[in-house]
Amino acid sequence: MTREELTAKIEEILEQTPITDIHTHLYTNDFGGLLLWGIDELLTYHYLVAETLRVVDLEPAAFWKLDKTQQADLVWKTLFVDRSPISEACRGVLTCLAKLGLDVESRDLQGYREYFASLTPEQYIDKVLELSNVETVVMTNDPFDPAERSIWEQGGATDPRFRAVLRLDPLLVTTPQGISILRELGYNVEAGLSKETLSEVRRFLNDWLDKMGALYMAVSLPPSFAFPANNLQARLIEHCVLPVSRERNVPFAMMIGVKKLVNPELILAGDSVGKSCIEAVEYLCANYPENKFLVTMLARENQHELAVAARKYKNLMLFGCWWFLNNPSLIEEMTRMRTELLGLSYLPQHSDARVLDQLIYKWAHSREIIGKVLVDKYSDLGRTGWKVTEAELKRDIEALLGGNFWRFLEM
Ligand code: RAT
Ligand code: ZN
């Protein structure tokens, strides 16, 4: 294959390979208003709110008092009309509109609103999954949230294209609140984490893994995350999460490096990033070889040591370019490095989509970069005389876009 042929082949296979998106904040239609979609949700994505509040003459508190349409109007005017939308999050909105067949050149926000108003959520889910070629959407499910919990208690997610994840931030990060919610739910727990409490927390984890059919348990952790440690978090991980995770053969996902609310006025847009310690990850992988860990880190500075750690431990599956890393220059850098260190044994991307439509742009943009890196890597092989077949390319790309995840779950 010439480089041109290889490029065309890889692009075609990337387009045609169905994706498992292993971390999103999307929901099935069963969850009603929790499933966000459409132009106003796209425009009020917290990534764009942060960019707007940086440049607009309005205090955050006043922004949050506006209704959703007014917020979206302001974001549109500020980031798309008064200046060119060249940030990644802005460009994403345009990619979505373009792939939906809307006229980006018209800049007609009202027209876009009318288009979305003409669709039902069911129709739109089908359309987005088809356009993005996402086959499985892995959700983030929080049993500590009363709105979400009540849906699970009425039967939960009924669309098999969506799979659940048991998210544990309230238990592991804001433990006193988490424990008091468990008490309200009828678990016999107390703040001091007695033996009885630890056993009740394990019962809670098992109950909710069952109720959700969760594929893994997950938590987002601050840069200061340490393990082992003499604190409630480490006790809960050691005595509850790890044993349940092992017994159930369900991985524990750690998303490490978020500094919560460095600017509290920005709410969801107010979190930042800090450098974390790889030693906690290494310790867990080394000392709990029967456990499986899915790990992503938020700081660019942690990416090299994380990829090296993944070379050491087969129970560590590295995934995604998370949040502030989900930008073309960083995706490219990380994907090259990870491929060089790990070959095909990792998961290059997840979308983190909070708005259904974002599956379209996040995957279109990432596919393009993954393709670029792969073309270079297979071309380098070609120069040694190694010839890759189409079937081999399909096999390799299937692994990266989801196969590695499913096989890791089965391991
Ligand atoms: O990327 C995001 O939207 C963040 O706000 C977080 O949701 C983060 O991805 C998380 O899962 O905590
Ligand atoms: Zn997320």
Explain what this protein looks like in three dimensions.
Helices cover 54% and strands 8% of the residues. The protein is α/β, with parallel strands linked by helices and 411 residues long. It has a single domain, classed as Metal-dependent hydrolases (TIM Barrel), CATH 3.20.20. Strand 9, helix 15 and strand 10 form a beta-alpha-beta unit. It is globular, with a radius of gyration of 22 Å. Bound molecules: D-arabinaric acid and zinc ion (ZN). D-arabinaric acid binds next to loops. The site of D-arabinaric acid has 8 residues, from loops.
Helicity range of the residues? 40-55%
* CATH architectural designation: Alpha-Beta Barrel
Q: Compute the CA-based radius of gyration.
A: 22 Å
Principal-axis shape: globular
Q: In DSSP terms, counting alpha (H) and pi (I) runs of 4 or more, how many helices? A: 18
Poorly predicted regions: none
CATH topology category name: TIM Barrel
**CATH class type:** Alpha Beta
Q: Strand-and-helix sequence, N→C?
A: HEHHHHHHHEHEEHHHEHEEEHEHEHHH
Quaternary structure state of the chains depicted: single chain
Give average pLDDT, whole number.
98
